[in-house]
Amino acid sequence: MFEVIAIIAVVPAIAIAIVLILAATKPDTFAVRRAITVKAPPEKIFPLINDFHQWGSWSPYEHKDPAMKRTFSDVGSGKGAVYAWEGNKNVGSGRMEILDAPAPSKIAIKLDFFTPFEGHNTAEFTMLPQGDATLLTWLMHGPAPLMSKVMQVFINMDNMVGKDFEIGLANLKRLAEK
Question: Which InterPro entries match (predicted)?
Fold first, then answer.
């Protein structure tokens, strides 16, 4: 009987140890990047991202919870603009603030997640002219604390978040090319 109890106690302990060891091998930072070519000048794309009120027309996260509560700062767009949200388990809650927005080439955003997991990252959109088109890149990067590393043992963050970025970029392309 003691042997059975010992096995029941040891097996989960070994599984937890293996997960923690695998998590420890993950990098201390993460980055998810996607890009798309848009047949429009940066000046047409920039305002769609620089004004948080426009995100409802293209961001894939805006449609994951139709009842999501949104608040916007008095600053409508550009540096200092703030957008906060609170929603269901699909979107959680968080806050974004535009840190820098040199028109029409780049927008840097401080991105804070509060629920379901806390995270403090940076999102960057860059618009690089290429003839009659623009290379639009969406990058999110930040630290990978222990909980993030444990999740990465089971979930490929690049694939999961990257799919949403691809949808958002395709939506921006559709809007800018009208």
Answer: Polyketide_cyclase/dehydratase, START-like_dom_sf
Q: Which two tokens stand for residue 52?
A: 């948080």
Q: Residue 66: phi, psi to the nearest 5?
A: -60, -25
In SS3 terms, 158-170 reads as: HHHHHHHHHHHHH
Helix (H, G, I), strand (E, B) or coil at 48: helix
Residue type, 67: A
Contacts of 152 (CB under 8 A, 6+ apart): 23, 26, 30, 144
DSSP letter at 81 equals -
| pTM of the shown model | 0.86
pLDDT for 59 beyond 90: yes
- pLDDT tens for residues 145-177? 778 777 877 888 888 888 999 999 999 999 999
